Amino acid sequence: MAARVLDGAAVASQIRAEVAPAVAAFTAKAGRPPGLGIVLVGENPASEVYVRNKLKSAGEAGLMAELTRLPATASLADLLGVVDQLNRSEKHDGILVQSPLPDAMGHDAERRVFDVVRADKDVDGFHPTNVGYLVQNRATLVACTPSGVIEILERSGIPIAGARALVIGRSDIVGKPMALLLLHRHATVTVAHSRTVDLPKLATEADILVAAIGRPGFVTQAFVKPGAAVIDVGINRLDTRAAVEKMFPGDPARLAAFERRGSMIVGDVHPNVADIAGALTPVPGGVGPLTIALLLRNTLRAAETRVGRAG
To answer: Catalytic: 268?
Structure first.
């Protein structure tokens, strides 16, 4: 039996519908909408799409969202200067600096940015203070993608408490906060990564499998316990025919789709996992829409906290 498809777009619509009246109430009380400042450095095509979607969704939800662009040649000091302006702005409740940053800014540029964004405006949930609150299970602003995974699990009726959960990936952005959120909901959590010994065998013990390793089609049927819930966080672009043929050998329909578009978006989970899993998020249309919905909710929460503290 094919896996149940977990519709991230539908869950995201539910969250946006819940956020909209709260945004209207905040706007009526504060005399202004919640404000989000987005910073985009360079012209990464994927980042352009993500930022455009975030701005569109924020506007539809009634938020004030502004984009500041910096050229790829901008220095880290230039970027930190923009962040400082947003930190001091009274109309911006949330700050998001779109990743990835240009390589020329240095290998630790993103972490340095996370460190200087005001914790109460950190709608990405990456500031050390917010990460510390998450460890103690008392965070208000939590990383959007892992929060979205929890939302789709809970709203789809997939039990977390008592489940064995495996997170493949240990990044600060997804893997680590994902593990903590599952742990706080009483799952027994294992974090795996590229150096985990006998990873497929370990994965087959998981009732909930979250793939966030950034490798197209990495998770195959050999990784999946029959009936498990598989959450695919990966977003990978296949740009060559050879890459598509390697992932989908003997699949003329996918090759034809690639030829029409010139590229193909796939996740970290091979689609044939659907033949074994009990539930599976698609790519696209799974976790991606949830990330944006949780960004809107975080911005609202940041605004409510700031206005409540001022009042």
So the answer is: no
